[in-house]
Amino acid sequence: MTTPQQAAAARLQNQADHYNAAQAKAAQGGPMALITFWTNVNRKLVKDALASGDRSLADRLAKHLNDFYQAHAR
Known about the structure:
With 74 residues, this protein is mainly alpha-helical. The chain has helices at residues 3-28, 31-51, 56-72.
């Protein structure tokens, strides 16, 4: 593995460690805190994708949320 690959792998591991710790902390706050955590994580993913010109994640998340609403709002 080259140095840039090692740096990328380390960055991904650090990010995973951060999200795992943040998820565990949010879970201590109850279900709504956990929902807020995952909502924020997904909003960041979509925001980053939109900033790079990729609208597909925004469309997929909107569809998923709409489907969830339709399935549970009745």
